[in-house]
């Protein structure tokens, strides 16, 4: 490992990554990788997560292709220094903000979208001109292997490396000094990463999770209700069987609508899953046990209104709906990250706002409503990474929206230009010439210099001009 | 602050109160934020006399004039924020994409919550916070305290946060005046000042904050970040470094010498994080540069600089010893070519030039933060670039040259928080430029809108309608659906049309 890290550092310091042409060549190579190796990717995801190829394309490969194309199309613009205004006192001078790479960056990705969450930040890191080490999660081993094999074949293997391994490998990597660390995963490990980064004063971005609520208000139109339910399901089981950081964790609905909602959910689940062959599996036994134990307690199990069946050999858990499990049970205090959907009833839908506010800030809040007042209240009274009305998950696909958390859901944002910015240092550059010297800048501080200084400071150019011309004392 | 130690319980109480105040929603409105900023501006104006009196206690000599300008600058920071606040608070509409059509998207800035702002904490060795613009020459360290403490506070308030400020304990009289006076000009349920040093800062750091902004030394920066990690709190660290100056032979030497001198000794006698730390030049040009610097220093401070009224003193005896020890190093003392005098009683050290200090001495390893200026020479100017690259990235890097190519090479290859060509210190006067470090000189930036941004969360808000429902998103995944999905994600209009008309049907 030491040798690899040294190689990346040396290659970076050679200055190779600075040119637009190197960065474009890497991005184009990544695009070729995604086209050429699509089937291999589908196979790896199928083995790791039982992910259907449509989901693999929709959630990972397709989005990556979109993001690479967006970066290729905008990179020159992003790399161009940004001219800014200069206060007149500094005349003549010129000021720019010049983006430069941070250096050698470390990317940790998680297991649920192992290809997407490794390569999306990679796009930003390459665009910004860094050397890169990717450490994919060992819980998705086929995907990690795929990345290790393919990335070095298509991209510059001295500057972009994949290092596989478990927590030991991760810890060893953290002992080194990086110019930036990007981490996607759990808050527990996020803390470890940030504390390790602190030793070297390394900036970090943490993409964590949270309990993302979906608020279901009453909708007047039957068709809209149908669509809302489909979109909720789309944000729960259709997204890697609920194992998604922006997946719907639980629903909030007025108690009088809960029965209708649950019936519609049941019907739509049946429609989407006549068999469960397109449902992703639970990643491993450890998480399977974790999820199973969430519904073990009778006070929780009694609230199951749909599903509940499990097969530990197949790592299968049926889409399960619970109605008002106890709020202090683990299923309502921890991020579920699985196919269990609590439906929490409130007296009035506005009560959802307090419910959400008294809990840690999630990565996403979803609200299905046509009530403008409720929408405005949600916008100003709740805080989350993102807020989406009348749909789920889609904010992830928009390049112009920053993606990232706040509070317990993390900090740092990426996607689109935000990825480029995340892996860059915005260096202030000011240029002056030797013309126009103001002698009143310098000691000795004779009495006459002060009035000049005052005029300059108050941006009182008229007085300054008069003084310079000797017309004012 | 009432009597009794500021311990963990008091710190917890303080954060609980700030959180209650923030949760009440009072900091969110434009009116509240503007009122606070106006209050701060008023305070600076009305309490000028009191602040000057406190300064007199803390200072070796009266520095009323520079004080005046420090006040002006702090006020200018308020004024700029007030002028721009509405614009900063506005949501930014962004184009959505074909994939999600029809939809509308905005980026909405919102406050992070409760912010802790710490300025230079004396542990174990003091590190001064950065100065305001040095255009006007010297700034006393107390002005730094005020300007430094004020600028992030302005940003935090403009962004709608509740704030706890722990000002520098280096200037006790002004610090406690601030603690007494600020709360009477602002909403003191949301803006609090905590005086103290290590123990108070430690208990503050144990609490959960939504943002921590720290200015000071690297070592303490690490401690702050480790504490923040426990609560996953984002941090901005404004640290220091050895800010180098490269002097090419192709320059106007008189102007160069003056600008270097005012940037070094005119900034509180070198005690500023963006003051030039050391100079790099070619062996051939060294004599010319040194002669020009000597002439300039004679002009600025006279033949007996320790007696000059325009020379600031070293802030305290701990730093005085630190600096004299650097000079007493047997490998260093022989390299002094100008100055080197000091007066322990008055804590004054004269502007001192040293030529070719050995690279492995402490003076060339640690940030000097004082009136000692080593000049390191190399055969070729390119070696000066290499030397900078071999060291940690500094907060500022300076180059004096008329050679455009050399200038471009410097900008492209030297990484620093900020770069200034042909002058020193000025770039910090520009509120349109982000001020902050990179690598060991810091994380994050502020000034102007960057202050507002550093205390904000940019929330993505996406609105969709129920029209345009693409069944292709959902299982069962037929071949047709997969085709549409591909088209949609890649922004194909036809795929969009088909999806919009609901094809394929389920």
The counted number of beta strands of chain A is 18
- Give the biggest sheet of chain B: 7 strands, mixed
Please identify the oligomeric state: heterodimer
* Uncertain segments of chain A: none
Q: Numbering strands along the chain, what is their spatial order in the largest sheet of chain B?
A: 10-13-14-9-8-15-16
In whole angstroms, how far apart are the ends of chain B? Answer: 69 Å
Number of helical regions of chain B: 17
How far apart the termini of chain A lie comes to 70 Å
The Rg value of chain A, from CA coordinates, equals 27 Å
Chain pair sharing the greatest interface: A-B, 106 and 109 residues
Mean pLDDT of chain B: 86
Strand count, sense and barrel status of the largest sheet of chain A are: 7 strands, mixed
Spatial shape of chain B: globular
The chain-level mean pLDDT of chain A equals 94
As residue ranges, the low-confidence spans of chain B are: 122-146
Helicity level of chain A: 40-55%
What is the topology, as strand order, of the major beta sheet of chain A? 10-13-14-9-8-15-16
Q: Helices and strands of chain B: which structural class?
A: alpha/beta
| Beta strand % of chain A | 15-25%
Keywords (chain B): Oxidoreductase
Protein name (chain B): Aldehyde dehydrogenase
Pfam family, one (chain B): Aldedh
GO cellular component, one term (chain B): cytoplasm
